[in-house]
């Protein structure tokens, strides 16, 4: 059977079952009515594997699997009770109480199922999973005992989750008329927790006569009667109490309740009644003793204490609050024995001086006896007796402490300091130090206080870092001002631990007190190092210290802030404030403070500072007031006077004073001031001589070398400028990122014809990181400056320039009909020209100086109309020379050749030679061109720092053909405004206007043309590298020309279109 499949749909299971039934019928094995039994056996056979599997999973606590198995089994065998039971367990194991309850209700027909259902519902109620309406429906279907159990579970849940009052109110509201014993007991338990005695009595008293109350119920009912102080009900209850100890408990509780309610007569009456019942006993005496204590019956307390043999000290403690004299009398008769602590406590409580004086104790209680007795003496104003019993040399710190306290109380501080010193020696902690310094201040022993604190700090600092108590810090700082000589004698090694033991406020005050008495900058620096700079302190002394520290550490701005705070409370601080403000650069505020205090000058050094400030602010009126306070023949003073003379226009006097300064072995700063005076007086040579002299005196001074080099680099003579080259090279090594040095070096290299070095220097400048700390405007200038370096580098890096252009003009010059003769018909029909230009520089020295010598070649292809091309072919080769660096003038000399193709012109409506005739000429051309007004802000160049700019030029060009004696001239002025296109490419668009004059002179036939127009130009810049700006540009122009006068083009109007690329 174990080898058969257990699948409910398997073929084998179906075959076995039917085979078994069929065989039974065939062989007559089934009795009449036995079919049901047979089916039950078959069902058991089929359900066994599922149940076996479910039991195994139950042991593993695999409740979902158990649930799945049993649900499947019940789907086949709906009445399988074992499956239902296991399913209920599976639901409970998964906390599915509602499903478990529903299933249990289906099997509740038998006692076992009913109990299981009851248990599940009870659990659900205790867990708070059931609402009151569900409980009501359950109660309607439940038996009495089950109802009580369910109600108890519900109210216990209410009591635990909310409070007993809620549970009791619910029970009273819904089941107050229920007389079941269980519910009454439940009501009594809840009522006891709620201190509702009447409800307890109402619930339990009906059950008393029928003996249905247990021991706890009787105790509960008895305590309710006792709380109501009803002796009659207690009498009625006692016969039902079987155990003597329970009766004693109730009787004792009644007595104590009556005593607590201050009903002594009731307690006494009940006690006598109780004594008549059980007879005289120690229990009765104990209750009588308690009653006597409650009634403050001292004789009875003493009598009963003796009878009960109560401890003597316990009786004394009871009597202490009722009759002190009786208590003292009994205390003196008590045996101290092993309770000296209790005896001392009672003796001090009763202030029993006699007992303390006549009962010496063994150690360590003798010390406590002395302390207690001393306190009693002090209370009775017997201080001398107290001091006698507290000797100074007693080997105990508590005794000495008591002596010190006694002396402090009576303002005997000099004697107290002796006691406190002994305490400090025995226990050198901060608390002992605090009390000792307190007594020293009151005894005016300031020197001893400073010495004590110093020694304490030195000793404790060697072990660990701790701050002194604030009170000790206050006393130390206050005593400091009264004993400055001691501070001056202190060693530096004591200062650091002392400062470390003070908080910030007291540390600042200490530094402020000490700094004025210290002359060493190093010691001041060491002191200030212990004073953090970023903490605020409202105390004037502390702010003064912080200000002095800031000045000593070269932070005058911070010092000025501190001194300004102090000035609000101390006016004598203003000179120091002036020094700080001046050093911080706030010269106007320094002068304002000086004027605020009546323009008083307490010292010449302050006058010098104020004079410098007045000069800085160009307040020459104040400077004149301060000059008389300045001693003559002092370089700094003479410089101030010289600058005043400059302001007054007396350059000769200023130079005389500056020369006097230079003759007095001046410092570097004084020399630079004299040089500045010479510059402003216009004597640049003298300034340069003085600068050279001071540099020769201090050749290793980098600043002087740089200043001298920059000045020499700015001289107009090239040879003198080159003297700055080695100086600026040295300065560049020290300041490789200095832009001014780098630029000056680049220009000097150019002046020295060293093009590679100039390019390297420009590359170094271009490679410098961008300074993002600048303002937005300065950053734009920095970007444009970098672009100009790249532009210069690009100009130096190339020798060859190529230009290609195509021009379509509205009309050309008069037609050539042969032998260079012009046709009488001069009306132009338009012109197109394509041209190219190659230029090669051949001189480095000229190139680096902004000049130039180059060879070039050019060609052009010209046509007389818009559809006819290459009627004229021409080419030239020559030399170009740019003689000036600051003037854009170019001189040309070239060999020019023009080739005319008559065959091409034959198709024209003009009269030309017959087809097949050709002519060509070779001539020498001399040409000059110049442009003006096109530099600086009006140049035709890309701008990195702008989005739009102005452009203009005046272009002059004249050419002379030597052999032909033919002259052409052009003058054109053009002005426009360029805008960058809003794209990520370097493109611009520029509308412009122009005026142009042209002239020709051929064989003394002079023709001219005046015209004006407007156009638009598009430019695209390209071909850049990290070190080279855009080296190429594509330009497209469209312009409208209007003839105004002249015979050259007969004032013809038209549109010109041109395309050009510069490579």
UniProtKB/TrEMBL annotation:
Membrane-traversing stretches: none
Keyword Disulfide bond: no
Residue span, Bacteriophage N4 adsorption protein A C-terminal domain: 875-1056
Domain of life: Bacteria
Keyword annotations: Plasmid, Receptor
Keyword Heme recorded: no
Protein name per its UniProtKB record: Bacteriophage N4 receptor, outer membrane subunit
Species of the source: Zymomonas mobilis subsp. mobilis (strain ATCC 31821 / ZM4 / CP4)
């Amino acid at each position: 059977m174990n080898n058969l499949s257990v699948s409910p749909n398997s073929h084998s299971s179906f075959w076995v079952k039917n085979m078994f039934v069929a065989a039974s019928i065939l062989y007559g094995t089934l009795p009449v009515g036995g079919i049901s039994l047979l089916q039950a056996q078959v069902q058991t056979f089929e359900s066994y594997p599922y149940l076996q599997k479910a039991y195994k999973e139950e042991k593993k606590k695999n409740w979902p699997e158990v649930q799945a198995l049993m649900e499947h089994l019940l789907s086949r065998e709906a009445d399988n009770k074992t499956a239902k039971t296991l399913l209920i367990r599976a639901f409970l194991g998964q906390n599915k109480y509602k499903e478990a309850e529903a299933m249990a209700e289906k099997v509740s027909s038998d006692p076992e199922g009913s109990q299981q259902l009851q248990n599940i519902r009870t659990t659900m109620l205790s867990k708070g999973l059931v609402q009151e309406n569900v409980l009501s429906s359950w109660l309607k279907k439940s038996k009495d005992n089950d109802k009580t159990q369910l109600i108890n579970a519900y109210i216990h849940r209410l009591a635990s989750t909310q409070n007993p009052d809620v549970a009791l109110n619910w029970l009273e509201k819904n089941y107050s008329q229920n007389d079941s014993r269980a519910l009454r007991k439940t009501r009594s338990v809840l009522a006891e927790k709620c201190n509702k005695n009447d409800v307890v009595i109402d619930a339990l008293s009906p059950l008393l006569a029928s003996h249905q109350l247990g021991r706890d119920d009787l105790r509960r009912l008895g305590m309710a009667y006792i709380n109501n102080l009803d002796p009659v009900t207690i009498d009625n209850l006692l016969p039902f109490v079987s155990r003597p100890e329970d009766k004693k408990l109730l009787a004792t509780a009644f007595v104590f309740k009556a005593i607590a309610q201050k009903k002594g007569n009731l307690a006494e009456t009940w006690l006598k009644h109780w004594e008549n019942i059980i007879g005289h006993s120690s229990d009765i005496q104990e209750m009588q003793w308690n009653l006597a204590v409650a009634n403050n019956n001292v004789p009875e307390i003493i009598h009963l204490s003796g009878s009960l043999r109560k401890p003597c000290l316990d009786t004394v403690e009871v009597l202490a609050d009722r009759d002190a004299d009786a208590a003292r009398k009994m205390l003196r008769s008590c045996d101290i024995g092993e309770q000296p602590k209790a005896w001392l406590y009672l003796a001090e409580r009763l202030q029993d001086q006699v007992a303390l004086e006549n009962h010496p104790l063994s150690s360590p209680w003798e010390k406590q006896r002395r302390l207690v007795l001393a306190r009693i003496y002090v209370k009775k104003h017997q201080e001398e007796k107290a001091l006698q019993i507290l000797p100074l040399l007693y080997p105990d710190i508590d005794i000495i402490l008591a002596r010190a306290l006694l002396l402090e109380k009576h303002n005997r501080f000099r004697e107290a300091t002796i006691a406190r010193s002994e305490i400090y020696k025995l226990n050198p902690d901060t608390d002992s130090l605090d009390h000792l310094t307190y007594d020293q201040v009151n005894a005016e022993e300031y020197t001893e206080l400073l010495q004590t604190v110093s020694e304490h700090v030195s000793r404790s600092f060697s072990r660990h870092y701790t701050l002194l108590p604030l009170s000790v810090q206050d006393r130390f700082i206050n005593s400091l001002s009264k004993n400055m000589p001691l501070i001056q004698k202190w060693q530096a090694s004591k200062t650091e631990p002392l400062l470390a033991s003070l908080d910030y406020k007291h540390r600042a005050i200490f530094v402020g007190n000490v700094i004025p008495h210290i002359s060493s900058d190093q010691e001041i620096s060491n002191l200030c190092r212990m004073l953090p700079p970023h903490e605020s302190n409202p105390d004037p002394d502390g702010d003064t210290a912080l200000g002095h520290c800031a000045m000593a550490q070269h932070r005058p701005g911070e010092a000025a802030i501190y001194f300004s705070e102090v000035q609000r409370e101390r006016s004598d601080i203003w000179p120091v404030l002036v020094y700080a403000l001046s050093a911080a650069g706030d010269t106007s505020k320094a002068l304002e403070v000086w004027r605020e205090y009546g323009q008083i000058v307490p010292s010449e050094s302050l006058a010098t500072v104020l004079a410098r400030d007045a000069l800085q602010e160009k307040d020459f009126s104040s400077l004149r007031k301060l000059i008389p306070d300045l001693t003559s023949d002092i370089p700094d003073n003479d410089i101030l006077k010289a600058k005043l003379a400059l302001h007054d226009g007396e350059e000769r006097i200023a130079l005389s004073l500056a020369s006097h300064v230079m003759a007095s072995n001046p410092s570097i700063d004084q020399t630079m001031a004299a040089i500045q005076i010479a510059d402003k007086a216009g004597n640049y040579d003298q300034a340069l001589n003085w600068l050279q002299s001071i540099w020769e005196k201090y050749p290793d001074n980098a600043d002087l070398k740089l200043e001298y080099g920059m000045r020499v680099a700015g001289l107009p003579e090239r040879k003198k400028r080159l003297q700055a080259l080695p100086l600026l090279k040295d300065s560049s090594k020290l300041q490789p990122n200095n832009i001014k040095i780098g630029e000056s070096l680049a220009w000097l290299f150019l002046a020295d014809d060293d093009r590679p070095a100039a390019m390297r220097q420009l590359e170094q400048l271009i490679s410098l990181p961008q300074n993002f700390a600048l303002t937005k405007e300065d950053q734009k200038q920095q970007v444009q400056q970098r672009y100009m370096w790249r532009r210069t580098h690009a100009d130096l890096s190339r020798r060859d320039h190529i230009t290609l252009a195509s021009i379509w003009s509205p009309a050309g010059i008069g037609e050539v009909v042969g032998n260079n003769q012009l046709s009488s018909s001069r009306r132009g029909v338009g012109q197109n020209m394509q041209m190219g230009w190659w230029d090669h520089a051949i001189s480095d020295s000229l190139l680096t100086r902004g000049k130039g010598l180059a060879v070039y070649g050019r060609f052009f292809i010209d046509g007389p109309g818009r559809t006819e091309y290459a009627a004229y072919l021409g080419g030239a080769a020559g030399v170009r020379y740019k003689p000036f660096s600051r003037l854009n003038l170019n001189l040309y000399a070239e060999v020019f050749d023009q080739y005319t193709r008559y065959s091409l012109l034959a198709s024209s409506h003009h009269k030309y030679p017959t087809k097949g005739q050709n002519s060509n000429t070779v001539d020498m051309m001399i040409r000059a061109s110049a442009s003006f007004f096109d530099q600086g802000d009006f140049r035709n160049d890309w701008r990195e720092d702008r989005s739009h700019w102005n452009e203009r030029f005046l272009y002059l060009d004249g050419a002379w053909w030597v052999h032909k004696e033919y002259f052409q001239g052009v003058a054109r002025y053009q002005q426009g405004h360029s805008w960058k296109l809003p794209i990520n490419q370097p493109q611009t668009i520029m509308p412009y206007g122009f005026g142009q004059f042209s002239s020709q002179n051929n064989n003394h036939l002079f023709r001219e043309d005046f015209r004006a127009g407007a156009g638009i130009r598009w430019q695209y810049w390209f071909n850049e590298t990290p070190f080279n700006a855009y080296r190429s540009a594509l330009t497209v122009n469209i312009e409208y020309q209007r003839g105004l006068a002249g015979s050259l083009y007969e004032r013809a109007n038209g549109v010109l279109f041109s395309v050009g690329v510069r490579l």
